[in-house]
Specification:
282 residues; globular; alpha/beta; single chain
Length: 282
């Protein structure tokens, strides 16, 4: 489903006042169709699977380059948002968009293991062993419908054993916070505020046992609270919401299923309205 989103970005098809960014917890938690229907403001979810903030910013920068600037930016946060992974997870998603004139994209992607400068210059090199991508993109293979709708994909799944298996291996998990990523995130927030984009930080529901599994979770959330305070922007934390105590709304400790995502999205809209953040000003 990443191609659906990247294509919309680079083809300038995203004409939305409300943009959601984040990782997989963004694109399976925030339903932009419900947001659009209930607020009358077009919304789009550009959550990118498996990547913390660094490449979330890369995707948002590309969106601003080729599409209209949003009025409201919802940043989906989690315990590993400020982590810096060394590898370019799912690097195949970037291959169709590696053009020599995309200097910003090139600079960002080459900081990870997975691609090299030749991939930006020589298409046959980058697609070697990945010709199925060309089939999908250019031969309209399996084009009966998009995988994601406005970037969102609700998951019709029931609770699995991911957390149970993790607990068998570890007593708890300590998430490393990368200082450089943290500073980039703080600057990103300030820069968007300067561009007159309303920024809202949101920690969406997370199953309570999963929260307790992260040993330094409180200190990470404190970083988000401080950023909220320093910039006078909302930090809406759903960590103690009733959803977090009911497995029926999750398919693992960190991801809501479709039923949970729709319930959460409606709660988020109500909260944004209560805080006078919606409707947006023209």
């Amino acid at each position: 489903g990443e191609y659906d989103v990247w294509n919309d970005i680079f083809e300038g098809k995203i004409k939305s006042d409300i943009i959601i960014i984040g990782s997989s917890r963004a694109w399976v938690h925030f339903n932009p169709t419900i947001i659009t229907d209930k607020t009358k403001h077009f919304a789009y979810n550009i959550g990118i699977d498996g990547h913390p903030f660094f490449l979330q910013k890369t995707r948002f920068d590309a969106l601003k380059k080729y599409n209209k600037k949003p009025k409201l930016l919802i940043i989906s946060l989690e315990s590993n948002s400020l982590f810096k992974r060394p590898d370019l997870y799912n690097h195949q998603q970037f291959l169709p968009y590696l053009r020599s004139n995309e200097e910003d994209l090139k600079k960002d992607l080459l900081q990870f293991k997975g691609l090299n400068s030749y991939d930006f210059e020589l298409p046959l090199i980058r697609f070697y062993g990945n010709f199925y991508i060309l089939k999908e993109l250019f031969l309209n293979y399996n084009n009966t419908s998009k995988i994601r709708t406005k970037g969102f994909k609700g998951e019709d799944k029931e609770w699995n054993k991911d957390l149970e298996n993790a607990k068998k291996k570890f007593n708890s998990l300590n998430v490393k916070v990368d200082d450089i990523t943290t500073q980039k995130f703080k600057k990103f927030v300030k820069d968007n505020i300067k561009e007159d984009i309303n920024v809202v930080l949101v920690y969406s529901p997370e199953y309570i046992e999963g929260q307790n599994f992260i040993s330094n979770r409180d200190s990470i959330v404190d970083i988000y609270k401080n950023i909220s305070k320093d910039n006078s922007i909302p930090f809406i934390d759903f960590s103690k919401d009733s959803i977090c105590y009911k497995k029926k709304y999750f398919y693992n400790a960190t991801h809501l299923n479709k039923k949970g995502a729709n319930l959460f999205t409606n709660k988020l809209i109500d909260t944004l309205k209560e805080r006078k953040l919606l409707p947006l000003k023209n």
